[in-house]
Amino acid sequence: MRYNRLGKTELRVSAVSFGTAPLGDMFGRADEAQAVSSVHRALDAGVNFFDSSVYYGGGLAEQRLGAALRGRRDDVVVSTKAGRFGPDDFDFSPRRIRESLHRSLELLQTDRVDLFHLHDIEFVELDGVFADSYAELLRLRDEGKCRYVGMTGYPMEALIRAVSETDLDAVLSYAHYTLLNTRLADELAPVCDEHGVGLINAAAVALGLLTPAGPRIDVRAGERIRRAARRAAKVCEDRGADIAFLANQFSIQRSGAATTVIGTTKAHHLDSAIAAESAPIDEELLAAVLDATEDVRTVSWSSGLPENNGDHTCSA
Asked: Which of 55, 56, 134, 148 is catalytic?
């Protein structure tokens, strides 16, 4: 396992990190033993960065992660988020952010998190996020409740604004360095480099679009993106290749981000993602897949308020 420094922070994170949404039953029910076992399996493989949120099962993911990391807290980097509390429940007020972090610390069984994010900022007016919400992050950091602060979201435009208009330690971007879309490397990474902000990549398989079975959740990608995903899957199927493995290889090895978050409680999926970190890429296969998706690689779907999205979004 490779380890990379996260921006200008003192954190060194594993190239593959563990996303805990499945621990909160976000993609189907996972029992307690399976949840704890998946965390331990990741630890044994060298994963040291665990990303969570109060949104994942209303705290269930944090509770399970805290239990699984008991006795290992000092060996790992733990991140959690606030601001999004349900599918349509957003509150970035300073009071709610503070209350949320205090509850997260209880559930995680720790006195501080290494990284504290505002979650999915594009769903609210951003000027307020960059003013009062951001100021509360800094207060919590100054109080030692978190070591570093960040923000997450889907639209490139929202994250670029966040990096440019505040002094963050890290940002998390998802589904923007995949076989379908490479805007993270082209647009967000240069801004992060300029400001010394750590870049976290997530959703290498595009929320399930780049898997043989397809998404298990509602993905708001339009038909144009879905057609490209089907073309990519057909290329891999015709060559006897696993599209999810190639997607993980490409995202983990080529994004340039410090770490790529993988979310699963299934042992074989976790093992495959970790193997993808170092397995040589079949360059001929990759070229064929990228050729099949060339028309959508700068295309994103809309997320959150329309004004927080740019000109690269499509609905069809």
From this structure: 56
